[in-house]
Design brief:
This protein is an alpha+beta fold and 85 residues long. Strand 1 and strand 2 form a beta hairpin. It is elongated. The model has no long low-confidence stretch (mean pLDDT 88).
């Protein structure tokens, strides 16, 4: 049971440190920044794109940024020994 509590404390520390992480992706002049809790922090649009191009590029940026953060979190968890939690 104490091992479980220790792992929970380590997981909480990891979660707090991931909040500080950021991933920025740019496509067609659109930039999206996502933090370690997968929240979108910043979006910069390209006024030269039409609505359809903007929607597609924005969705691609958000999806790629979130996927990159998730991969980084998984690697960090494995490195810290919390992968089997």
């Amino acid at each position: 049971m104490f091992d479980q509590l220790k792992k929970i404390q380590e997981l909480k520390k990891l979660q707090d440190s991931m909040k500080q992480e950021q991933e920025t992706v740019q496509k067609k002049g659109i930039t999206v920044t996502v933090n370690g809790t997968l929240e979108v922090e910043r979006i910069t649009l390209n006024p030269a794109l039409d609505q359809s191009e903007t929607e597609i590029a924005l969705a691609q940026c958000i999806n790629e940024a979130q996927k990159n953060i998730q991969k980084r979190l998984a690697k960090t968890m494995l490195a810290s020994g919390l992968g089997g939690f």
